[in-house]
Prior knowledge:
Blueprint: H1 2-26, H2 31-40, H3 42-62, H4 67-84, H5 98-118
Amino acid sequence: MEIIFLVSNIVACAFLMIYHMHMYQLNSYNIIEEKHWLQDNKYPNFGRIFGLFISIIFLVIFSFKFYIVGMILAILLNVATSLGNKEKESKISLKYTPRVKRMLLTSSIIYALYMIVIF
């Protein structure tokens, strides 16, 4: 069950990272433009990230008494987050430039360290 949770969490986080990396690239890697875009789209972005964080909270809360229920709810939230962040057709697709590859690698390492600390 833990492996299913980890896989679903990794997939959800990967889709979320790719989505935000694409938006950052569309904003020409400009921090000010990205900040304005995030402020203008805070509610859709909150919904994209909410399921991922709630799944971890469910896992912690239900780990004491209702472990299976918490794990199932966490997996379902991870799947919902993955489906919500799946790549869609866009006018300009994400280009995997060396800069994007470096940022994705760095984000993945930070995420891996985070998961090691949690588990």
